[in-house]
Amino acid sequence: MFISHLSRYIPENIVPNAHFTQINGLTDEWILSRTGIQERRKANLKENTNLLAIQAVRKGLENLPFPKEKIDLIVGGTYTPYDTIHTLAHAIQYDLNISDIPVISVSTACSTFVNAMEIVQGYFAMNKANFALVVVADHNTAYSNDLDTVGGHLWGDGASAFFVSKTRQTEQDWEVMDIITAGAGNVGKANEGVFLRPTQEGFVMKYGKDVFLNACQYMTKVTQDILKRNNLSLNDLSYFVPHQANLRITKNVAQQLELPEEKALSNIQYLGNTGCAGCAIALDENKHLFKKGDNIVVAVFGGGYSYGAMLVKV
């Protein structure tokens, strides 16, 4: 399958580290040394998860290489829903005004993007769709607590849209060569390392060290696995896009893979942790860097310890 077009939406409001210094005493130096984050984006009071996603899709429609009416599958992904019944995917369908097509919402925490792409891959393989729209968005600041000195400073908001086709539409299309997804929900502190229970409390990072160690381990392993499965070596890897959770995690995984730092793309420094949208946003932000023939691996790891990787050839 092929990525024909992609787009993103980032809220305008910027929250610098100084905001947290004022309200809970965390210094800019402390936050930078532990996360790499300098600032993050926050949705305004009139925005929600669905509206973030709709804005990303509308931006993508501006240069879409095929009529929007051809879209016959919508997959929405988020773990910070605005509405659990009229979901993100339903909101996109309503805005596009496309009837009688499959509409699916999925959540596997921060690994949701790759799982959403795999759902499209399955529909294409079963000849149940030809043109899909994958939209991932997280409104993390709606659920986070700025006073929380453990994790309140991590979160940012954002969305990205991917227009995916079963067959190549233009010479500029990227080919999705392979996808691997899995879960390690029975490992370590997977059941309580980080959680979000809307009826009880917002984000809680109870065992951050365990999350960190497993994220590094599994993103490294799944990157090696997907390259090996496609007869590629690490030398064949042009760019690596890890889940944007922590700059220390990105650097640790890149070091384990023996990748030059410039090959590991990151936006957490100025966007914060944008959840399942982070990798997707990074791909759109950096598309001007990619050249024909480049091999790109997206590696993800989420709460509940779901993980995966996607291999893309430009």
| Strands side by side in the biggest sheet | 5-4-6-7-1-8-13-12-11
User: Rg from C-alpha positions?
Assistant: 18 Å
The CATH class name of the largest domain reads Alpha Beta
Largest sheet: 9 strands, mixed
Report, as a whole number of angstroms, the end-to-end distance: 12 Å
Q: Find the count of extended strands (DSSP E, 2+ residues).
A: 13
Q: Would you list the SSEs in sequence order as H and E?
A: EEHHEHEHEHEEEEEHEHHHEE
For the record, the CATH architecture of the largest domain stands as 3-Layer(aba) Sandwich
CATH superfamily of the largest domain: Thiolase/Chalcone synthase
Main structural class: alpha+beta
List the helices and strands and how they pair.
Blueprint: E1 2-9, E2 13-16, H1 17-24, H2 28-35, E3 39-42, H3 49-61, E4 73-77, H4 88-96, E5 103-106, H5 112-125, E6 131-139, E7 157-165, E8 174-183, E9 194-197, E10 201-205, H6 208-229, E11 239-242, H7 247-256, H8 268-271, H9 278-285, E12 295-301, E13 306-313
Parallel strand pairs: 4-5, 4-6, 11-12
Antiparallel strand pairs: 1-7, 1-8, 2-3, 6-7, 8-13, 9-10, 12-13
Helix pairs in contact: 3-4, 6-7
